[in-house]
Amino acid sequence: MVKKQVMVSPEELARQRDFMALCQKELARRYGEEKAPLAFVKSFGCQQNVSDGEKLQGMLSQMGCGFTDDIQQADIILYNTCAVRENAEQKVFGVVGWATHQKSVRKDLLIGLCGCMTQQAHIAEKVRKSYPGVDFVLGTHALHQFPEIFYGVLQSANEGHRRRAFAVEESDGVIAEGLPVVREGGIRANLPIMYGCNNFCTYCVVPLVRGRERSRRSADILAEARELIAQGYREITLLGQNVNSYGKDLEDDLSFPQLLEAVASLPGDFWVRFMTSHPKDCTPELMDVIARCDKVCSHIHLPVQSGSDRVLTAMNRHYNRAQYLEKVRYAREHIPGVNFTSDIIVGFPGETYEEFRETVSLIEEVGYSSLFTFIYSPREGTRAASMPDPVPAAEKSRWFQELLDAQREVGMVHYQNCVGKTLKVLVEGEGKLKNGILPQEEIDAAGGRVLMGRTEHNMVVDFVGPECLIGQFAQVTITAASNWALAGHWEKPGC
Ligand code: SAH
Ligand code: SF4
Fold this sequence. Notes:
The protein is 37% helix and 19% strand. By secondary structure, the chain is an alpha/beta fold. The chain folds into 4 domains: 10-167, 3-Layer(aba) Sandwich (Rossmann fold), CATH 3.40.50.12160; 185-297, Transcription Regulator spoIIAA (2-Layer Sandwich), CATH 3.30.750; 298-416, Transcription Regulator spoIIAA, CATH 3.30.750; 422-489, CATH 2.40.50. A 6-stranded parallel sheet has the order 2-1-3-4-5-6, with helices on both faces. A 5-stranded mixed beta barrel has the order 15-16-17-19-18. The longest helix is centred in the C-terminal third of the chain and has 25 residues, at 393-417. The radius of gyration is 24 Å and the shape is globular. Iron/sulfur cluster binds at residues 197, 199-201, 204, 206-207, 241-242, 278.
């Protein structure tokens, strides 16, 4: 069904810009004209959340704020939260507890919570009752209203009667174009092309907190992509919770394969990735675009979740094992060297050991280079949360370890196969990991500085090279491999 888009009106966006200017004045009054207030913004969870965090930073920057990674220096602390699993939520409550404690000694500290967690009514209520130090809570649908909400908080503090703000109304979601963005790095950029999800996988809270699928107009996306390329970004990741169902809600606009090809056809030296694709929308047309567009990385992150047909049906995934494997086969036939990664859930309610073993056999059959693996976590409001779940946690942990052991072997093959090959990598910066496979003599000879790059298959490579390579593509000959990273040799003199 084609639905009408829910665009935030230009008038409303202009109103929010006015609030940014008002916030700037209030902040200057609060912290003095000569010192920019410092914000600490921490995003948890998926790339979509990171992208929302970049918009919050964009709005804060327009209000005259600077940024700090040192929370002790911050005047404003903003936690952009994730609700996908319980441990993500616990982590947030831990750090919020710490921040609100800081506030007992630094009364002028401002603390805000936003993101997926806060869009859940029971969480907003818990914050209201148990975390009085939190000044404002901004649900995912209220992101563009941040300036107005923040202004209310600042004004009430100045007037001496602190008012907390909770903007967590339910909504199917909106699209706000043209919000300012401050991106990290300058090399790799996230470009959201759609928001929300219609799939209602039975374990997943995302559709409950991010609303229905809504696609941006391709003209807006292409304009932003052109801007990113002009700014020198070398990699653009098209983002969506279900990125390959892009465009189904639009009339007279591009489909996802057409959009991907349009982005890849823009002039410039860059790579394009996309995530996350749902297997049901991974069509031959899409794989043909990946095959014919050099700038589209030959890497498909295609979450399978389980290798058992019964479990896939219980998860409401809309494909079975054979259909998934057929997509992998088609891709391998048409895209030379294509690489797959995936997400797996272990211990879905009612899953048996035999069904879990079907997942292990599937990962061996597909041969993923790496996996994101999760133990099932019940989420309030989802269908799976009320399904019988008899397998004890300790048993699920054993299965989880078995999966990791199997994947170690499967992944190793991919990494070992790279040894001796010369691969194009995008150099992202200094190698912080020092992955342990680059010979120490080589590291010492380079004064301890190692560069880190990523192949189009999303494999990390450490190698020695000059700093001027950062932000460039480089040809690196792979000399050694572990089961999760590569070491290489770069020979070209100069930059
Ligand atoms: N939209 C993306 C990402 C969703 S969240 C997608 O559909 O792939 C990222 C991953 O978290 C999911 O793929 C799934 O493997 C995992 N996940 C989601 N809900 C979960 C839950 N309740 N328990 C454990 N893992 C979960
Ligand atoms: Fe969650 Fe499924 Fe939507 Fe992904 S496709 S966000 S797992 S409901």
